[in-house]
UniProtKB/TrEMBL annotation:
GO MF annotation: an example: ATP binding
High-level lineage: Bacteria, Bacillati, Bacillota, Clostridia, Lachnospirales
Domain RapZ C-terminal: 165-283
Keyword terms of this UniProt record: ATP-binding, GTP-binding, Nucleotide-binding
Residues in RapZ-like N-terminal domain copies: 1-155
UniProt gene name: rapZ
Amino acids binding GTP: D59, I60, R61, S62
Pfam families: PapZ_C, RapZ-like_N
Positions of ATP binding: G8, M9, S10, G11, A12, G13, K14, S15
Domain of life: Bacteria
Residues that span the membrane, as ranges: none
Record-linked HAMAP family: RapZ_like (MF_00636)
Protein name from the UniProt record: RNase adapter RapZ
Amino acid sequence: MRMVIVTGMSGAGKSSALKMLEDAGYFCVDNLPIQLIYKFVQLTVNGTEKFDKVALGVDIRSGQALEELDEVLEQMKKDGYHYEILFLDAKMEVLVKRYKETRRIHPLSGSGRVEQGIEDERDKLEFIKKRADVIIDTSQLLIRELKTEIDKIYIKNEKYNNFFITILSFGFKYGIPMDSDLVFDVRFLPNPFYDPVLKSQTGNDQPVRDYVMSSDMAGVFLDKLEDMITFLIPNYILEGKNQLVISIGCTGGKHRSVTLANELTARLEKLEYGLKVEHRDIEKDAKRTL
């Protein structure tokens, strides 16, 4: 039997992940009292009804009893009950934004600040995060992208690396993305904007891609950037980082940055980390002209 304990920060997507696992055929139970978890595991393994796949949701709603979970998990391990832990996480600013948008109250904030509740929760869940087999940072993920990751790990049984890279193209005239970890300026490359044929196209179109990449500087830049990133990632992982946002900017975020973001994504696919590309400002010039 495959057993997955789904846990993580409130607002990071735990309920969504459980629902996805349920849709995939897992028998799911959410917020079971900590004192009953061991008994539940015994029943699912040794009971008359056999289960192939089970997912168990555990979170901060367990209150003080959450402190007993570490002992329960240790006992399960000692008695030969195999389990995996999936931990859903997200950045502070993302969690705060989600709570404000939904107007929900954080379980630990009460009438106080949401930020304080999130900080307290992170401290209380640190012990289980250290035990986690898989950590997914949902800060940059859409629901369908989270589903793709869940499917890879728990349905297709593909190897998962707890590190996710987002390559983000943007236009400097619209501001640098606030969640950037690394920012690169490619405004030194020839600009397709001044070619009447290419102006209305984007870096997703082959003619623009060919124009930008015809510059020797583009290839050299990509070689050096790829080399630096492949050096940095293992060191980031050693420091406990599980997500990297690489932002590549040009003037309007439509031609050069889009091309370079796509090219870098293609080069990094061989690294076998979670990876996606986004183009933040690719449509903004078109909207302005309407």
